[in-house]
Amino acid sequence: MKLLFCLCLIAICPPSAAQDADIIPYLEAWRVSDRSQSYRAQVFFDSLRIHKSEAIYRKKYLDHIAKLRQYLQRNPNRRLEVRLMMFEIMAGREYQMEERYYTTINEAIKKAYPLRDDQLNAELYSIRADIPPAPETHLLYNLKAIEIQRRIGFEHFPYVQNRFFGVSYVLYGQGDYIQAIAYGRQCLKKWTLDSTHRDSRVFIFQCDILGAAYKKLNQFDSVRKYYNRILQALNEEPDQKVASLWRGIALGNIGQTYTKELRFSEAQPLLTEYLQNSLVYPDSLNIAMAQNAFASFYFQQKKYDQALLAARQAWQIANRQHIYAELTAAADLLSAICRQTGQADSAFYYHERSDSYKEITRERIKKRELSVVNAQIAFDNLRYSLVLAQSLANKEKSIRNAVLAGIVLLTVIALLLYNRKRVKDQYQMRVMALNHDTAKRDIQEAREKISVFTNNLIEKNELIRNLEQQLANTRPAGSEISEQLLNYPLLTEEGWEQFRNAFTKAYPAFFNNLRRDIDNLTPAMERLAALVFLQLTNYQIANTLGISKDSVARSKRRLRTGLTLAAEQSLENYIATLA
Questions:
Q1: Which is nearest to 36 in space by CA: 119, 97, 132?
Q2: How sure is the predictor about 403, in pLDDT bands with cuts at 50, 70 and 90?
Q3: Under 8 Å between Cβ of 171 and 156
């Protein structure tokens, strides 16, 4: 009897059931789709972080991941697959293997799209903000996560304050101090929302960004307010070395505000402690900043020898580490000191160096801002591709269902043909109605695709236009004219004339050279040549001229024939020489 019971038990509970017991907590938590899902999933991320230095737990988690994969092979589930991918990514981050998951996060975002779960998307965007690390994606995806979290409710998400800190940090680096302050204050406002998931170092970093941003705006009371908050927070810092460095940073920045207000006796001890603590750490950035602070301190008191020594030390340290902000500050101070002491050649030299450092900084900021544009376009393209893929999948499903229905109906017809002609006629009418409905559905789906594409294109164009306006002050004049050309609608004669006039102003020799090289030059050829010169793709040219990509290709071939180019010559390269 006992043997029979054991055999029955084995039959009812196969070996895989015992193995799945380890992963049941994951499956139960990850199946949840209500507002509690983020905190349920965060429990497993917290476990990774708490036990990341223990080899036994690392083996345990990797074993669980393997079992979860096996389970999903037997029981496919899109939500569970996305959650597992997120868990693998976070495990890779804790175990210093994050680079292998840089592409996985994009796959997870695509896989999650059909679920239509904004809360899950916000979690994915929060992870994507840091993987791979890049300022443009850090800004874009944190903003996307904040947008969704605000709509759902910040209280349903862990680490909300980190999203605001990430945005504040990048905006400060781009020189947008007002917005950096706005997001930084939101970070501190959300600080008490979740006492479990917050890092005291993030609080210190955020207060530092706020204080530094207010210092750029010369609002010294606010500077002192946030650096005093750092001093208060350091009472809870367990690492005395870190506490000593940050105490120096906070005091040094407060001291700099006193220097600006000519309160030299109050500034000196604070700046001294700043420099000493930076030297002990040692931290090149803060040593250079402290030396520049002392140079300014002495310069305002007309102690030019001491100011010169401090500024040169700041220059040397910043130059070794390529710290352009402090190199610029040191160069400006050295130029001012040399002017005051009658060293005209040196003053001019340092002034030129300062200008070159500022130009490098401007170029870096411009590249970051352009990278944000590219990241937004990539994000919009991703969303459009997902919408299109979903639409195609729905269409294929509809066609498949229609085919199956047709087979069934045709079978019925074949059977009823033996009975009476009237049934056959009725069935034919039903088939016609079905085909009519299918055609109407196909038309509706096509209109929906066109609508999605149009709205997506409008959003991208609006974003590019807004960001181009923000970048207008940092671009060379020639670049401004070239990019303004793209704002003219070329589908009307008036629009073409405006475009042609502006283009001629930017590249006066272009149309003359084109007319010289081609007989019977038409306005259409001129338009195409100009757009090719501006390095537009066939797709962009087609959108701009309101024609198809095939028409663009044919027009290019006619233009090439008119120019009598050799087979190995590139049309684009040739046209690029006409200006």
A1: 119
A2: low
A3: no
> In which band, very low, low, confident or very high, does the pLDDT at 450 lie, cut at 50, 70 and 90?
very low
Binning pLDDT at 50, 70 and 90, where does residue 461 land? very low
Q: Nearest-CA neighbor of 48 among 102, 95, 101?
A: 95
Burial letters 338-377, b for 16+ CB under 10 A, else e: beeeebeebbeebbebbeebbeeeeeebeebbebbbebbe
The answer for residues whose C-beta is within 8 angstroms of residue 100's C-beta and 6 or more apart is: 92
Neighbours of 472 (CB within 10 A): 12
- State how far the Cα of 300 lies from the Cα of 312, in Å rounded to an integer: 17
Cβ count near 247 (within 10 Å): 19
Of how many residues is the chain composed? 579
User: Tokens in use for 332?
Assistant: 């400006």
Quote the CA–CA distance of 170 and 6 in Å, as a whole number: 64
| Nearest partner of 130 among 92, 186, 82, 76, judged by Cα | 92
Q: Which amino acid is at 36?
A: S
- Is the full-model pTM beyond 0.70? no
Q: Cα-flanking dihedrals φ and ψ of residue 353, to 5°?
A: -60, -40
Can you read off the two tokens belonging to residue 426?
């009725």
Q: Would you state the structure tokens that stand for residue 331, as one six-digit string?
A: 């160069």
What dihedral angle (degrees, nearest 10) is formed by the CA atoms of 123, 126, 128, 130? -150
Tell me the C-alpha distance between 167 and 152, whole Å: 19
- Report the Cα–Cα distance between both ends of the chain, in Å, rounded: 97
- Alpha-carbon torsion angle 322, 323, 328, 331, nearest 10: -60
Q: What is the DSSP string of 475-542?
A: S-HHHHHHHHGGGS--SSHHHHHHHHHHHHHH-TTHHHHHHHH-SS--HHHHHHHHHHHTT--HHHHH
DSSP 424-490: HHHHHHHHHHHHHHHHHHHHHHHHHHHHHHHHHHHHHHHHHHHHHHHHGGGS-HHHHHHHHGGGS--
180 contacts 213 by C-beta, under 8 angstroms: yes
Structure tokens at 290: 């402290």
Buried-exposed string 431-450: b where 16+ CB fall within 10 A, e elsewhere: eeeeeeebeeeeeeeeeeee
Q: Is it the case that residue 66 has pLDDT exceeding 50?
A: yes
- Closest alpha carbon to 315 in 337, 342, 282: 337
In which region does residue 461 sit, left (phi positive, over 0), alpha (psi from -120 to 50) or beta (all else)? Answer: alpha
* CA neighbor of 275 nearest in space, from 197, 283, 300: 283
